[in-house]
Design a protein that fits this description.
Elements lengths: L3 E11 L4 E6 L4 E6 L5 H11 L10 H4 L3 E10 L3 E9 L2 E6 L5 E4 L7 H14 L4 E4 L2 E4 L2 H5 L3 E2 L21 H10 L4 H28 L6 H5 L1 H55 L18 H30 L1 H27 L1 E2 L2 E2 H35 L5 H25 L23 H19 L10 E3 L9 H14 L6 E6 L8 H8 L5 E5 L10 E2 L5 H11 L2
Parallel strand pairs: 3-14, 3-15, 10-13, 13-14
Antiparallel strand pairs: 1-2, 1-4, 2-16, 4-5, 5-6, 6-7, 8-9, 11-12
Length: 577
């Protein structure tokens, strides 16, 4: 079931400057009016900022320097109607759902921060928004800006280029197609990514099965050797027992030989080192002379002399012991040579027995052929098992792929929706009195480039486009519905006839399932005040939200004198400040 969001109240408070703002919204039309630079755009931008859209920070920098906290209360209409409050205090954002404890996100000022990503996923789940966009070669959940993009026209660029009210989205690969496909219900980019994965897995399994089948087809050549399998089994048993004995004896002989050679080498090396030590000690005369290494005079102390002589005696004693050991080993040199002969003979026996085994022949089937056959028999059995497993996986993947649209189906759907949009768009342009385009591409949604119009004609064209897009996506079952916010609908030099024409168009084409919030410049000096526009063109149905009494600039915040005391207290409690 789609989610419909209805704004109830927006509140802002600055403890630093002791100022506040508070307003309520009606279910239908809401007009934000006031003098130029009074703060009309600020209100709309602040509401988006409250949801975690950091793109609005630069536009709100003057306000944010006052450490303003924001709170937006709204109703989420889904299975039931749920009251929700979302609050933001710079880097902190808190969501208070009805009958649930507050959920806090700390550190959301950067769009790539872990907390901001968690916030994006939380809002996506809450509003049923699961658009995926391609980034760095993979699909990931779209930004919060993409969630609001169909429902917001910014004053600065929104009336110049379509779907450009937030920065950076046009740098996303394939954004136009992915964005339209999702909101029109053609396909989701996450589905597309999953489809690519399944298609690759299907291709890999098919290639693997083809390779395995080619191997399996050759198994007929082994049928004859299978019949003689038992004969070679007996022969193998006859060979294995003597082989184990001979191989074990060979290993033992090789081990004894290596041990003897290693010990002899070790003792000879130790003898060499001790001889060097002895020569060095003989040069170090404690009574006279100097150290051969450092050239310092040798000490003549009695203890030093004794220690020196003791070192010489110890070294001589070790040399004598090593000489005895080496002499013993040399005595068994003959034994080592004998080991070499025995090893050589034993190796010949092992090799001869294996050679006889490999030459064993039964009806032209040799032992080596039989070994290869045994391997192939085992391989053949494993191939059959693997082919069966792959076939089951393949059938499952084919079943999953059948649920996805083919590229041709997607192409046809895009053409269908483009012409559906064209019908709505053409009528909207006619209602606004905009001259028709000569080229059909300016009507077809997926082909529309920048509109070749300017001034009032461009504003009316983009107004018509935005209402047409809002209308067509309303029919997509899963697409969430936010209030439709249009900033400065009288942008530019408009005469009274065009202003009335625009208001008539808005009243006639306003969405009937969501709110609409738009701002217009108003002043006490205006020829026609807002309340007159409301009566003459909107049937008096609009809720009027005035900033600065139509006379003050930078009037978003007003001095706080104790208004909404309990509401402020509740707000600060939820924020935990």
């Amino acid at each position: 079931m789609k989610a419909i969001i209805e704004y109830e109240n927006f509140f802002a408070f600055s403890e630093n400057s002791n100022k506040y703002f508070n307003t309520s919204f009606s279910k239908g039309m809401n007009i934000v009016h006031g003098k130029n630079t009074s703060g009309k755009s600020t209100l709309l931008q602040a509401m988006l900022y409250t949801f975690g859209i950091n793109d609005e920070k630069l536009k709100l920098s003057e306000l944010l320097n006052d450490r303003v906290i924001f709170r937006l209360d709204f109703i989420l209409k889904k299975e039931t109607n749920e009251k929700i409050s979302i609050l933001r205090d710079e880097d902190f954002l808190v969501i208070k759902r009805q009958d649930s404890p507050p959920i806090k996100f700390t550190g959301i000022s950067g769009d790539r921060s872990v907390e901001h990503i968690k916030l994006k996923e939380f809002l996506g789940n809450m509003f049923g928004f699961d658009l995926y966009l391609e980034s760095s070669g993979k699909y990931s959940p779209a930004s919060i800006e993409a969630m609001f993009l169909p429902y917001y026209i910014a004053q600065d660029v929104g009336w110049v280029y379509k779907h450009k009210s937030f920065r950076g989205l046009d740098f996303v690969k394939n954004f136009k197609f992915d964005f339209f496909d999702y909101y029109l219900g053609i396909s989701n980019d996450f589905d597309r990514d999953e489809k690519k994965r399944l298609e690759k897995e299907k291709s890999d399994l098919e290639n693997e099965n083809k390779f395995l089948s080619n191997i399996e087809e050759k198994k007929d050549e082994l049928k004859l050797s299978k019949m003689k399998d038992e004969v070679f089994v007996v022969k193998s048993i006859e060979y294995i027992e003597p082989y184990k004995i001979n191989k074990g004896e060979l290993i033992e002989l090789e081990k004894k030989y290596l041990d003897s050679c290693n010990k002899l080498a070790f003792l000879e090396q130790r003898k060499l080192i001790l001889n060097r030590i002895k020569r060095a000690l003989n040069k170090q005369k404690p009574v006279e002379g100097e150290c051969p290494a450092c050239k310092q005079n040798m000490p003549s102390d009695l203890v030093k002399i004794y220690s020196h002589l003791q070192d010489i005696n110890d070294t001589t004693a070790q040399l004598q012991e090593i000489k005895k050991e080496i002499d013993k080993l040399k005595e068994i040199k003959g034994t080592i040579n004998s080991l070499i002969r025995n090893i050589s003979n034993k190796r010949k026996i092992v090799a001869k027995e294996y050679d006889e085994l490999t030459k064993y022949n039964v009806d032209n089937l040799t032992y080596n052929s039989w070994i290869e056959n045994k391997v192939n028999v085992q391989l053949s059995e494993k191939l059959l098992i693997k082919l069966g497993e792959n076939t089951l996986k393949l059938n499952d993947i084919i079943g999953q792929l059948s649920e996805f649209k083919t590229d041709e189906q997607v192409r046809k759907d895009r053409v269908k929706y483009s012409y559906m949009f064209k019908e709505i768009f053409e009528k909207s342009l006619s209602d606004l009195g905009v001259k028709k385009f000569e080229n059909n591409k300016f009507y077809l949604l997926y082909e529309i480039p920048a509109f070749p119009k300017q001034g009032v004609e461009l504003l009316k064209t983009l107004l018509s486009y935005s209402f047409s897009f809002n209308k067509i996506i309303k029919n997509t079952p899963y697409v969430h519905r936010f209030p439709f916010m249009l900033d400065a609908i009288f942008e530019g030099d408009l005469d009274e006839d065009n202003k009335g024409n625009i208001l008539d168009f808005i009243y006639k084409n306003k969405p009937n399932d969501t709110q609409i919030i738009f701002s217009i410049a108003d002043s006490k000096k205006n020829y026609i005040p807002v309340d007159v526009y409301n009566q003459n063109h909107l049937n008096g149905e609009a809720n009027l939200i005035c900033l600065g009494g139509n006379s003050k600039e930078r009037a978003f915040l007003s001095p706080y004198e104790g208004q909404y005391k309990e509401y402020l207290k509740e707000t600060l409690t939820i924020l935990g400040v």
